[in-house]
Q: What sequence folds into this?
């Protein structure tokens, strides 16, 4: 599979930094952006696959909500039963086209459906044994998050699970500053300049709205899920598993 072009979206000084979008040029470099911007991204995908071996049931659907370029399905395909159907939902047509191209190049033979839809409007979930929100909910407007989680839970089979991975805030402002500092140091180690980090932070300011760990857990438990536990934590990133 061809190597993703390098992310240089914020490498030049901009007079006006516009809100971050998943359209156009972002889709082209998104895989490189993920690998250089998300700590332990490959390990998180491995963990999602590992959990899926216990929750993805033959004859049911697995949903990746905010599926971007299809990486999660590539991680799941080798480890879940062939009768599990994949459904990817994303609001960016460019991301979905990249996903189709990648799955075709990989040679995936299972039943896969891609849907272009805005999760702010909720989502139609049917016969789901598992759903995944991998760094997606933080881009859904807060006033729409309860409705989205409720719609996921209502379409999920008994004993199904939702995996939620998010950037998170700390209750303590000092720890929050430290964790952000450590995160930016991670990005610098991966080749991003301070200007790139600063301009992307500005672009995300009104687009990415993180919650505290406790707020995310309450959101899940108040909207149709019976149990919730963190399964991954790295400074200001956290993964949750919620059971129907």
A:
């Amino acid at each position: 599979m061809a190597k993703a072009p390098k992310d240089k979206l914020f490498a030049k000084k901009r007079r006006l930094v516009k809100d971050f979008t998943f359209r156009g040029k972002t889709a082209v470099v998104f895989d490189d952006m993920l690998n250089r911007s998300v700590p332990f991204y490959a390990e998180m995908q491995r963990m999602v696959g590992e959990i899926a071996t216990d929750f993805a049931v033959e004859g049911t659907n697995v949903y990746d909500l905010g599926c971007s370029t299809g990486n999660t399905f590539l991680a799941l395909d080798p480890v879940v039963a062939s009768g599990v159907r994949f459904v990817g939902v994303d609001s960016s047509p460019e991301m979905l086209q990249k996903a189709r191209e990648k799955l075709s190049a990989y040679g995936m033979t299972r039943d896969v459906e891609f849907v272009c839809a805005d999760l702010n409007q909720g989502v139609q979930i049917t016969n789901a044994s598992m759903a995944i929100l991998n760094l997606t909910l933080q881009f859904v407007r807060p006033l729409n998050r309860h409705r989205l989680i409720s719609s996921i839970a209502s379409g999920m089979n008994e004993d199904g699970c939702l995996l939620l991975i998010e950037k998170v805030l700390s209750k303590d402002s000092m720890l929050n500053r430290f964790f952000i500092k450590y995160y930016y140091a991670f990005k610098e180690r991966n080749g991003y300049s301070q200007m790139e980090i600063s301009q992307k932070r500005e672009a995300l300011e009104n687009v990415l709205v993180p919650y505290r760990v406790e707020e995310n857990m309450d959101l899940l438990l108040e909207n149709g899920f019976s149990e919730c536990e963190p399964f991954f934590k790295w400074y200001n990133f956290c993964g949750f598993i919620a059971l129907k």
Remarks:
- The chain has eight helices and eight strands.
